Queue: 2 jobs
Job 1
Amino acid sequence: AQAIAQPSESESAFELASGRVRAAVASRVTRDEAHSLSDEQIAALHSGSPQGLTPVGRATHNEIKTYLKNVVTHLRGAHQWPDELAHVLVIGPGENIEEVQAVLEELPGIQTLHIVDPFRSVLNTMERDLPIYLADHAELTAHVTLYRSTVLQLPDPLAGTVQVVVINRVLSGAFFYLEKLQQAYQEIARALAPNGVLLLGEQ
């Protein structure tokens, strides 16, 4: 019979320590169910949209990082960048965590990152993968709150609190008629703090 190699004492200790780090980080990624919407509410908000409620393609990690770097550099040079990033909101980040990674990396100092998406699959991915990513990047200390919601009705606790909103390839005439686009921009304006910044990326 072939012997099975057993992990050394140092390997076991490392794995145990890594598990504890990830468990601690996982507590920083939470869902706010109280301010999330039901299937029926989301469907009603998006009824009549040109393509209905469908996931869309996303830019790559490097594309988003380059865009954020350029815009933030410009705004800082023009003295139009917030002094602190207590609350940053990402709307509709898509099926992987690349956009969220880019935001965390290019906007250092975020205290709380809020993520809004209408798809359960997206939130499940965030809840699964973000603790692993954060555990590997100890310099990132943000807490992350997940909401199942939509740009057409942002969670009430965000009203007037958000220094930066990031929304990429979500607001488009292919997905929203003019009336709904106006509603979306009104919701973003409602969430922004005084002198807050909207970073809007569209094709």
Job 2
Amino acid sequence: PADLAAIVTRAMALAPAARYPDAAALARDVQSFLNGKLVPAHEYSMAELLRRWLRRHRAAVGAAVALVLGLGAIGGLAFRRVQAERDRARSQQVASETLVGFVHDDLSPRVRAVNKLPILEGVSLEVDHYYQALPGAGAKLSAASLVQWGNAALLLSDVAFDRGELTASRAHLERARQRLEEAAGRSVFADRAERRLAIVYE
């Protein structure tokens, strides 16, 4: 070992000033070596000091490494779970919006044709509540979702108008305009939103 070699080198140095001053000093260094402590006669590198420290604190280092690995595993599982929840929520949102699209794009014109618009009022109210309940109340909605939300407000406006509730009809119409104008600002759905806006401005 390098520290034992340093003791021997110092004990056998040619110059008296480089040697141990007495046998007690030599005994202290030998005892330090035997006890696994640092030997003053040896100059330790950082790597040697680190190795010695790790050897002395092996249990604590092992526990810390196990803890870090455990926390990493738990964090990874939690992250995957959050991703899965987000993906499932997104799938549910897409499914909901597909159903909303069917009601407002396909079913609504047929119901209008037979003058039974109030039938869709409950669906439109649910659609409106659905979008209002989303986190951020629609701040991060896609253009397609904004169009659907605007369609629901248009239908509610028509139902209120047919009942003679002009104030409610105007309020729904204004909300439809806001949603559709916001959607029209996004290029992918601009045409679809502008077609619906034309209804608002008629």
